Amino acid sequence: MWTRTHQKLYEGIRKEDIWRLWTDVNNWPQWHGDLDYCKMEGPFEVGNYFMLKPKGVPAVKIELVEIVPGHQFTDCTKFFGAKMYDTHSLEETPNGLLLTNTMVVIGPLKWLWIKLVAQNVADTVPDEMEALVKLARAQRG
Prior knowledge:
Elements: E1 2-10, H1 15-23, E2 35-39, E3 49-54, E4 60-68, E5 72-79, E6 82-93, E7 96-106, H2 110-140
Antiparallel strand pairs: 1-7, 2-3, 3-4, 4-5, 5-6, 6-7
């Protein structure tokens, strides 16, 4: 199993604002700078899926596999011989809102998908987290 976690504490941001942006999958390209598009039909619920199209590569189907409303969600991308889970969570603390992103890749061909996809995705998480918070602040006014 391969795991990468990034977390950061943000002051002056509300968890409701982050949750709203996370669950608005079709608008992820607003804060997810390396996407051509992200499309989901229907509600943000376990079992539903969305198509995510990174710039320069084919679109992938990603399934929502766990949701704790207002706190965290996990999605899963299935590759040949591996699965990549991406968990996004938020926690209110006395010092601000703690955002955490944890990626896990499992399966016999995980080494291939880490090299082709997962490491690059993990490397972009800090910038995307900053862009997400910036957008949440801008929309809040």
